[in-house]
Write the structure tokens for this entry.
Amino acid sequence: MNVKKYSTDNSSGVAAFWRGVLMLACFLWVSDARSQHTLKGNVIESMSRIPVISAHVVVKGTQNYSITDFEGRFVLKNLPTGQAQITISYTGFKTLDTLIQMTSDVEITLELEEDVKLIYGAQVSGVKDKISDESARSDERKAHHVLNIISARSIELSPDLTVANITQRVSGVSLERNNNGDGQHAIVRGMDKRYNYTLVNGIKIPSPDPKNRYVPLDIFPSDLLDRLVVSKALLPNMEGDAIGGVMDLKMKDAPGELYIMANIGTGFNTLFLDRDYQTFDRQNVSRKSPQQVNGIGYRAVVEDFPYENIDFSTKGLPFNSLYSVAVGNRNKNKKWGGIIAGSYQNTFRGANSMFMTTFIDQSTNLPYYEIMQKRQFSTEQVRSGIHTKFDYNNRKGHKIELYSAYVNLQARENRSRVDTILKIGRGQGPGTGRVEIRERSRQEIQQIYNTTLQGTHEWNRKFKTDWSLVYSIATNDDPDMAEIKWLTGVTLNNTTGQYSYEPVLYDRDFTRRWQNNKDADLALYWNNTYTPIRRLELSAGVMGRLKGRESHFNSFLFRTSPIRQEWSGQIRDYTFTLFNNIGTPTDPLNYASSEEVTALYGMFRWMIMDNLQAMGGVRRETTLFEWVSNAPPTVRGRVGSISYQDMLPSLHIKYAFLPKHNLRTSYFKSISRPSFFEVIPYEINEDDFRERGNPFLQRTIAHNFDLRYEYFPTPLDQFMIGFFTKEIINPIESALAIHLQTMYLQPNNFGVARNSGIEVDLTKYIGQFGFRGFYTYTLSEITTSKIVRFRDNNGNLTSREELQTRPLQGQSRHISNVSLLYKNSRIGLDLQLAMVYTGERIISVSPYLDNDIWQRGFVQLDFSGEKKIKKQFFIYAKINNLLNTPLLADIRLPNTFNPEQAPYIDSSKSVLVREDFYRQTIILGLKYKL
Amino acid sequence: MKKTMLQLGAIALITGMLFSACKDKDSDVNIDDDNDTSGITTITESTTELQGMMRGTLREGKTYVLKGDLIIPENEEVVVLPGVTLIAEKDASGIGFEITVLGTLVAEGTKDKPIRMTVPEADRTEANVFKGLWGGIQCGESAKLVLLRWVKFEYLGDQGGPGTPRAGRTRYGFWTQSSNTEFILEDCWVYGCKDDVYRPNGAKINLMRNTFEFCGENGGDGLNVKAGTVGNIAYNLFIGGATNAFKPSNEGSAVVQTNINVYNNTVLNSGWRRPGMSRGANINYEVGARGLSYNNIIVNCKRGMRVLEDADIPNISFDHNLYYATHQEMADEFIPSDAVTSTQSVLGQNMIYGAITENNPLFVNYNVDRFTYAEYEAGESQPADMNKVGSSNFRLNSGSPAIGKGKTDFAPVNVNWQYATGNRAPGIMQPNKDLGCYPTSGPGNNH
């Protein structure tokens, strides 16, 4: 066997497009009498010798072509005897044009060279195709600290439509889901959402959440992303308030050449094949409450509240619609580049749910059945986003970028509930008693807007400066959530043995409420880097952010008038009066706050040896938080401020003890600030609970340690195993505390929590098949005070505090994600089967000892596929939740008080409190890519 | 070179600043302090209008006007002498003012010189009984003592006004929030209340010899007791409540168990203005509450006395109570059908009830059979007489089956009074051998 090797020729001057040279290393001749021959080969990168994936290999002047697979291999069949002119092209590389003598089957290795001019001519990331998985792996390998990257290509091929769902494909990340089973927040290494923050292009964005700092990740459509970077360790030049991790959403960048992408899709959720989708008319709903519209002194009247959004109707199977488009280009001299991308997703989901509310027995502290709620959700989510980026590069080391993004998520939800009261009033046995029916309409409009002006200046080879000026807004409108209630019941006629229904009457009360809040951030970042010698880089920088936040809440109580009204089938027959025409001005969610964070850092990067790098430094963050609340004068602390300062050192060492093998270790100190709301000294005095804010809450401080071994046998394959441990000082949890014979729910600091784990990450491609998976083992421990209800020695029912040690909320001991990939470049087919396993975890912490709600471990299976149908045209399919996996959650204590009230559930060991089914979501679409 | 120096300077400056204060600093918290006592006004001889933070004495026989919310600050006291009339006005939007007690309020009238807490004269009409024209007495957690004797309260309730603890929410006639607050209501009248008359979320209580009329527009209990409440309810006349007359429950945030004895009360025509299954039961124990209930007369209520399954059943006992009903639907519910087992388990052997019109208590001046069933169920169109005392007299004629049937060998709940001591001590009365609030011999309701 003769093997020919070709390599590129650097002789330039040959006119533009076809460039490249081949060099022969060796080749094999096998004499063959046939006139048709096969050319097999693999394409590699000339410098790194690693395979190039998805390169086009074309027999010039014919339709005969091939695309390289995961190992860079291709096959061209049916080549006639004689010279074959082969062209190999791939973005970011010089196109290779070569002649191969075909007298028999040939096997060759071809080398592609990076297009150096193109790279230095514009910004590197702008041209070099970062969308590929390969470059993602390469960046992970080169990164200075512990991070994971999901490439645009992976995102495109994944079953996921939102950024939230993508995060579950990252090692060590699991999801917290919304009512419809769709991902919403990321739990990183067992650390709840409050311990993570979110960036867009490296800039922290404000949250639309009414109380908290964290950003819901389902607001971002995935197709605006260039890549998702999850950092699990912090450098001194990163903001210091993450203990779990940082999600950085890198949006599509201005390309090196004309780029056009368009996508259209549709589909449905199979839930609505079996039941109707329930909806309401939201057109007359005012975004703002009557007092916000008419002024604080306004007295609302019944006419301010439309009937439309309490008038429910059903419709048949609703179809999803998905559109996205992106256009980018760069001018001839490569100085100007820009991209504009938009996405619109209108999706319908739902849930069929059994939700059991429980009461904690006052003598045994065991849970027992209170209300069995049958819930049906019908939710429409309209997710839209647009982002633009323009850059100007004077090609002398100075660059200015202007970036703007706007995302908007509107959720319109109907919740239908039929509640059977199990706790009381069942004197006639199971099957009888009070039944309450509720219909709720709600819409939530969350918006995030960010604009960033950024400059990068390479003054000379030693000095670099970059700066960013940022303005961001996040808003949340949750207007006129209205819930109508009816009462009925079932009675047993003792003599006839017949069950009969009571008439369906309107309950006395119903409520409608408005909630909205707005954050506005103004921030400045300024970073300087100095490279005195090749092996040393020193940097220092400043960051300042001023945040203003306001929150409004207004709830209105309506009373049925006349008192007794039967359901007529027509909501417009229903009449009621408004009880509180002033709304709820002193509700604690009426507050304004501001926060100033200023930070300074100094950082070094030192290549101690060619294969040993140390990076580290220290960051100082100073926080000043101020608030004004609208609480009544009887509440202390309506106005106040909190200030503190933290020094956050870190050190990151990377040691490539063998080529392709890395050993990393890092230490960093970080913080997690209390939420905006929980430090404001509010008071809630309800009959069944009392809640207090806590201005004396300390921010949480964590010491984080990481050790990781990485092996990259090929550009796509990787194996990583890592260990992490965190010591978390003053974690914040809400707990009931007894003070002056009364229990208050109040956020508090609880000693020291610990969280450690092992992460294993494996990616392996064999020919057309790929395997990607991670497994994370996490153990955490926190001790908080809980309430125990018991009967004292005098025979009285009372409560005491007791300490309980448990895992952190949301932390699963085992989480795993396995994706099987099939790629047939020849026919342009990509298939992916993605499995996520989330082990049992606490989804709700109870204030009562041992009454936490545990979600059972579950497997979710998703499928996606893409097929090229014509040049530049692709069809794709995504199916989520193939197995219709239910969410099941239990309180791990028996019900000894009234198990007979729900005879269909075994509560002798634990009480099932939630069972949700979401069914499959199916999406089919068409895509165009240039 | 210049740029280089500038750059180096910048890096050096930042690093310098970084290390100039290189320490963690603990949270420095500043919050405003509303416990400033300089704003408290002392009531004098010349005071006629009340509003804001005040302390002092309301002079005998004088009339005062509530021009804003009156706040009795922590550790301060307002004393109301006999014969005082307090007229509560409204804010610009029509919400009546209230008295917020963070300290102590003592209002002691006498039989001859009762105190009246009401609204401007023009508003005192029967059509307004459920309008909720002023805010009554709302206690904060620091309140020590509210002592009310011989006081007429009229037209209570509605939404809380702006700036009050219950702003925009249901305001009860009286509200306490702590197991350490002492609340004494004796020989008082409540005429008209929109929702619950008294909602103790904890208190030490003594509610004796009061008369309640027109309570609860379309819901609401006379005494809606939540967790942390201990004391006695006795010798009260309660007519025409919307839902329950007395409802002890241990639901809530207190670690003190609700323990209430309810005895020698007379309850009529209650439970009819709150539609819906299981609603309305005159005397009702639930959610871990305990206590004894003896010697009560229950007439024409939606159902009999009730114990729900989740009450502290081993520590509840009902006996020596008399039920009377005009209509079969009422009699069918003497043992409430939605809580048969739990209710029966606390009933003693001496309960008095039978068929309709059986066991007529023989009130001196009241026709127990005057209303049709439809009138009871008429909601807001109920005849007004169903819900007020008027010229009726609920004392017992001789021959009444309620005479001599009472239980006397039990003690009222023992309460450890801290503030209601000396001449402020509650007037706790022992049970009587006659049923109801007007025993034929011995002390009872004084109205």
